[in-house]
Amino acid sequence: MKNLAIDPERLWDDLMQTARIGATPKGGICRLTLTDLDRQVRDWFKSAAEGLGCTVTVDDMGTIFARRPGQRADIPPIAMGSHLDTQPTGGKFDGALGVLAALEALRTLHRAGYETFAPIEVINWTNEEGSRFTPAMIASGVFAGVFERDWACARLDRSGETFGAALEKIGYRGPEKCGDHKLSAFFEVHIEQGPYLEAEAKEIGVVTGVQAMRWYEVTVTGQDTHAGTTPMPRRHDALLAAAKLVEAVNASARSHAPYAVGTVGLLEVKPGSPNVVPGEVFFTIDMRHPEAAVLDTMEQEIAVAASLVRNQLGVEVSIKNIWTQPAVQFDPGCIAAVRTAAKVSGFSTRDMISGAGHDAAYVSRVAPAAMIFVPCKNGISHNEAEYSSKEQCAAGAQVLLQAVLDYDRQLAERYGK
Ligand code: GLV
Ligand code: MN
Ligand code: MN
Known about the structure:
Elements: H1 8-18, H2 36-51, E1 55-58, E2 64-68, E3 78-83, H3 96-112, E4 120-125, H4 138-143, H5 149-153, H6 163-169, E5 185-191, H7 196-199, E6 204-210, E7 212-221, E8 225-226, H8 238-255, E9 261-263, E10 267-270, E11 276-277, E12 280-289, H9 292-313, E13 316-325, E14 328-329, H10 332-344, E15 349-354, H11 359-363, E16 369-374, H12 390-414
Parallel strand pairs: 3-4, 3-5, 5-16, 6-15
Antiparallel strand pairs: 1-2, 2-4, 6-14, 6-16, 7-12, 7-13, 8-11, 9-12, 10-12
């Protein structure tokens, strides 16, 4: 294998340059999917890729594919990438590292004039975060045939705008039917978003799979009444009921330690007035564990808590499961390519299961896939303080490049170069 080296400075410059699009005062990024800021970073990505001689195409979910040809145009590309959308108080690395490391790997091939066997692609998936439109990873989900495109396009943000309208508005509804784009393999670099690599002083996480996750939307309906005149026993306080359910989510996750996690991350109180007992509360639940059976039990525990709250407070509770993502096992061939790549690059490794969701999880249903993690400071992510060093980011990009080249060699052997 020719020893190609990515350029850490170039990668860092790209990370810092794109981080200005949606920069927050605390050093993070707020670049919600399908907003004008998302359009700006997409435009940046498109022109950077075209500058490297890539052909850029867009599918009808807004996912962008930048292709560098290989020797064989008839073989589907080996793809790499992640997402450029962020959380409302997102950091500079979640998603952006995966796209920009991929761009840097491709740029390294371009500058070296290295001809791969298969075409190589960089992908920017639409709406990985699921913050503005639920669920997360919606475009890779449509790509993998898990969601219908029409259903995805009808998803509403909290202001009532549809995904489809927002996509049209930023001009990124492409002509290609989502899912028609075939891939030979997919590799995604990402910050770990957890504490293990840093704690164990390992440089690269070889990601073997992703834990199971479920999202729910809960509506509690009580009664709007006067805060000064309604005696406590006569109230049907939807917020009090919701508070008890938030506690129940936390207790359920804690009772399935050490792997279970449960979060209420969004809560809306109506009518939202200091002197009205709240009559309606909407909130979300995010539950995760490597095993579906544990999530089944947690779901039951929350249902029991909901019926207690109904009886105690005389409220209605509706719990809707809006997303079930089973645990994912990545492809052994791709995992082996990552492991070998880390080894030849001289990095220490640790196998791990991802606690976070990633587009690679859905892509793995339709193409062999695996992921590469790099450490992040204090394991903090979905936070403006999220940080991985230049060297840590570079290590991820280098392993990505080597893994893709390793996989390319395997394809060349398979197809009889
Ligand atoms: C994606 O950001 C997730 O919630 O895991
Ligand atoms: Mn991410
Ligand atoms: Mn994220």
